[in-house]
User: What shape does this take?
Amino acid sequence: MKIVGLLVTLLTFCFLQASGEKYQAYTVEGGGTISGRVTFAGKPTKPKKIIPTADKTVCGAHDAIYSEELVVDTSKAVKNVVVAITNITRGLSTRSMPPTILDQKGCVFRPHVLVVPIGQAVTVRNNDGIIHNVHTQSIKNPPVNLAQPGSVKEISLNPFKIPELVKVSCDVHGWMSAWLWVTEHPYVAVTSQDGTFQISDIPPGKYKLEFWHETLGKLSQEVEVKGDKDTKVNVVFPAK
Ligand SMILES: [Cu+2]
Assistant: This one.
């Protein structure tokens, strides 16, 4: 029985090794684009106004704070939806991506949803002159729980090594939250205020495109990308 057990373990290990394809970066030429718009079938509701319960003289002193859990405009466009190709194995390097900066201003993390390439340190700024706390709830990567006093304008988080979705909160100001989408490739976008997104320089092929939103959940669909062409993908999150 021991030998059978050992064989099973070895076979499982070999299978995992063979299936665990590592992303390969190369210079993509003549790639295609995916673009589109994300909307919500439900009734747009006004974002909840947050009344600060701590540091009231600073938090919300300039701009009122609104919850960014679900931002839908009058045309039903949804902001802050992550649009990601989830099964791409070859393409551009993450070096083509801009530096990642998470700002704390008026006791709000800005932006609310940030795409973070693995291997790149995230800069966290404190523009408020009061203490904030950067608390990441990562599972695959070591979590971080750092106090950032008002005198420390900028800190740098250790680069993430494994792709995952990480919630960030501040333990001083309970309403502060942000999401980091940690990725090994640059084929990820976040919808803007008008619900639109664009992903460029994609090697031609068939892919799975995933749409993630913190309160609306997940949608996915198959997409075919052709060289030098734009593939339009418009999706609608059903009403809850
Ligand atoms: Cu804070």
User: Anything to note?
Assistant: The longest helix spans residues 2-19. DSSP finds one helix and 21 strands in the chain. Residues 107, 132, 170, 172-173, 176 surround copper (II) ion (CB under 6 Å).
